[in-house]
Specification:
There is one protein chain. The protein has 123 residues and is of the alpha+beta class. The chain has a single domain, classed as Hotdog Thioesterase (Thiol Ester Dehydrase, Chain A, Roll), CATH 3.10.129.10. β4 and β5 form a beta hairpin. The two termini are 27 Å apart.
């Protein structure tokens, strides 16, 4: 992912999201990434889309309490009912301008109808 972009979601990591050493839990970060990817998937599917897989989750650097975390998404592939989204998370200390990539993964979503059954993405 390159070029100017807006984050799908941005939050500040809080003490309740951290372990005893002050590092943010990986599960909290995964949840944040799933939320950001879910927003992108719902916009593309023009409706409800659910997470069916997370692939290639890689942690590059820790996130600390007080860091601003930004999640960026990019649609990689659209199938008949599915959407694959590349997701990257970056941290920025509140007094700095530089972002550091902390994790990345690929999320797959399936568009579903009101009955919870798969539906075509392009309806």
């Amino acid at each position: 992912m390159s070029g100017p972009r807006d984050p799908a979601i941005r939050v500040v990591a809080m003490p309740a999201d951290a372990n005893a050493y002050g590092d943010i839990f990986g599960g909290w970060l995964l949840s944040l990434m799933d939320n950001g990817a879910g927003l992108t998937a719902a916009r593309r599917a023009k409706g409800r889309a659910v997470t069916v897989a997370v692939d290639a989750m890689v942690f590059h650097a820790p996130v600390k309490v007080g860091d601003e975390v930004s999640v960026y998404t990019h649609i990689e592939k659209v199938g008949r009912t599915s959407i694959t989204i590349a997701v990257e998370a970056f941290r920025r200390h509140r007094s700095e301008d530089t972002e550091t990539r902390v994790t990345e993964a690929k999320f797959t979503f399936v568009a579903i109808d009101d009955s919870g059954l798969p539906r075509p993405v392009d309806v």
